[in-house]
Input
Amino acid sequence: MRLAGIALILISTAIPLHAQEEAAGPSNAKAQKTYNQAMEYVHQHNTLAALESFKKADKQDEGHCRPCQRRIIKYGMDLGDWKAVDTAAEEMVDEAEEQKSLARAHYEYGVVLMDEGFSRHKDELFERAHEEMTKALAAAPNFPKAVYNDGVALAHMNQDAPAKAQFEKYVQMTPTDDIDRRRAELYIRQPEMARARMAPPFVVTTLDGQRISLDDLRGKVVLIDFWATWCGPCREALPHLQAIANKFEEQPLVILSVSLDTQENRWKEFVAKNSMTWLNCRDGADGPLARQFGVHEIPHTFTIDADGILQDEHVGDAAIEGKLKKQIARALEVQAAAKSAPQAN
Output
């Protein structure tokens, strides 16, 4: 079952779509007509047609359509149209006038370049991302997310000392409950971890009222299952997930089922009726966690190892027991090593 319009960004912050800009659209009348058609495609979940129409509307508006550019970035990243994404991001920088807007535009362009670097495995894109983050910080020095992501870019450039300095600065700038702060503290201790395919940090409230973060689960293997009650393939895959829960019940494995249901009562009833005794939370349609993980189809599972690194990803039901067993074995080794390590006085 396809979920349209979710971009894959495994760093801190997705580029927002501002409601006021969305309502205004482009200033050119012809472009406005094309823009309205693009929005119709969005409502129809026709992402490809929407992207092409937003590109056309922006061109008709002579590159001045900010809401078009944001949509081009969103859906271009979703579909891997990096040329369109880069062009839109550059236009946003060119259009920025005030220092705050300029800082945000450079930051967002840096986010785009980093995501492209992750997706296409091109290290030179992280150098360009560092340049954009530097420009963002020149325009707005007190910009925590730009500091954090500059640290990630520097780490990918194998500049561990400057990367560590940025992460230290980020920790000093942010409150203790900031979602990225613990990740930054990890990177200070182990800068090489910033080069790994780390799972995005998140905090969820489970069905039984627990507030759990990914960092709370460090040292354990985490299996995240995106699903919904209205998804036929998800219901078909449920017995397999139940078998995995039973097989590894006493092992350092945490299963988190993330529902994309909009109807809370229906979700709760389904979980109770089908004895889904592991952790459950509801993200809602196109929810924040689904966006963070770049979920396009469900059922969609992610396996995260004891260090918080994404190790495996599957769309649909899949035989994952062997890989889970391997990751669990490593988690047990890490736990044993931690217990045997000498305690600091």
Notes: The radius of gyration is 21 Å. DSSP finds 14 helices and seven strands in the chain. Confidence is low (pLDDT under 50) at residues 1-21. Residues 250 and 328 are 11 Å apart (CA to CA).
